[in-house]
Amino acid sequence: MAKVFLSLLLFLACAAPAAAAEQVQDKTVNELAKVIAITQEEDRPVPGTDVPGTFQTLRAEILEGTDKGTIVTVRNDYLVLKAGEEFYALHTVDVLQGTDVYTVSEPYRLPQLAILVGVFVLAVILFGGIQGTRALISLIASFLFIGYLLLPGILHGNSPILVSLGAASLIIVLGSYITHGFSKVTTSAVLGMVATIAATGLFSSFAIGYTRLSGFSSEEAVYLNFDTNGSINFAGLLLGAILIGLLGVLYDAAIGQAVAVDELRQAAPEASRFVIYKRALRIGREHIGALVNTLAIAYVGVSLPLLLLFYNLAPDASIFTTLNREIFATEVVRALIGGIGIVLTVPLTTLIASALLVVTPKGKNAILDP
Question: Which residue of 115, 228, 234, 245 has the smallest Cβ count within 10 Å?
Fold first, then answer.
């Protein structure tokens, strides 16, 4: 019995440090740094591959945080840096061994981004005038809704579908009235977009379930699932992403149709609602062709690296096998739902605008009067 007891004590004594070691995690933090000098630079294959890469050893000064002013040695196998360049260094502290390791995380590109934003704002204001300024205010409001309503709402465990529908509706309503002012034309476009979002949302829900998409088509979704302990419905998150992504294209189509109805009404005040509807729908059909093509090409452009990757990995694989992969099927469903949304926007908005804007001539009371 004593031997068993002593063996148990010995086991616990050995296991306790191991358990403690498993619980201790390395600390990592990103710190802004500046290259002072390049102490070593060589070209060699990336470990485990035949891909050539440039490897640097840098002396850099930390520019912020508690380590500000510290001169450190940084390993760089990410991108080629020059003396004087600023970058974000990933500072990893090995808690057990007490060592500090610095590697290049990202180049410091915020000043360049700020300049590009300034050029964009200046161009919109100069060439867009008051309308362009209103559009910028609407854009800022949209980002605020996304940052302070959509993202926190989903992360706090609310339904991604309901949160996305609510955020999309608010973006549509406030963005439209801020940009175009309060008028029947704007109201027609808003009602058309809201109706389209509702119909597209229902169809999206069916399509995602019908094609058995899980929402885990990207590494970001997998990491987010672990970070949130599986509390997010990723199929619903995919649906929400589709709806938010549609807003810009639907906005263009809806405003265009509402304005077309109003212009036709002013050009032909004696025309019936049905005549105005048919003429505006004719314009909308041309718009549909352009927007659907634009949307499909845009999705191909965004997914181009992915397409090249799979084509290069399996050039002899069946196109059907490739399309069946969730990562591709997701983009196909996204593009198809976007096309359906555009198609629905045109007749719905045109019908609503015809009903709200066109005053029926005397003796022609029905919307279908020729």
Answer: 115
Question: Do 195 and 69 have their domain in common?
Answer: no
Q: Identity (one letter) of the amino acid at 102?
A: Y
- Pairwise CA distance, residues 186 & 175, whole Å: 10
Report the chain's mean pLDDT, rounded to a whole number: 80
DSSP state, residue 28: E
Of 108, 129, 149, the residue that ends a domain is: 108
Residue 88 belongs to what domain range?
Answer: 25-108
Neighbours of 250 (CB within 10 A): 27
DSSP letter, residue 231: -
Closest CA to 168 of 135, 137, 199: 199
* Tokens describing residue 89: 């260094």
Closest among 238, 231, 218, 237 to 337, alpha carbons compared: 238
Angle at 30 between CA 27 and CA 32, to 5 degrees: 145
Kindly report, residue by residue over 240-286, the tens digit of the pLDDT: 888 888 887 788 888 888 999 999 888 888 888 888 998 888 888 87
The C-alpha atoms of residue 130 and residue 125 are separated, in whole angstroms, by: 7
User: In 219-363, where do the E strands start and end?
Assistant: none
Q: Taking the model in full, what pTM does it have?
A: 0.70
Residues 272 and 298 in one domain: yes
User: Do strands 86-94 and 27-45 pair parallel, antiparallel, or not at all (unpaired)?
Assistant: antiparallel
Low-confidence stretches of the chain (pLDDT beneath 70) = 1-26, 48, 95, 98, 299, 302, 310-318, 360-370
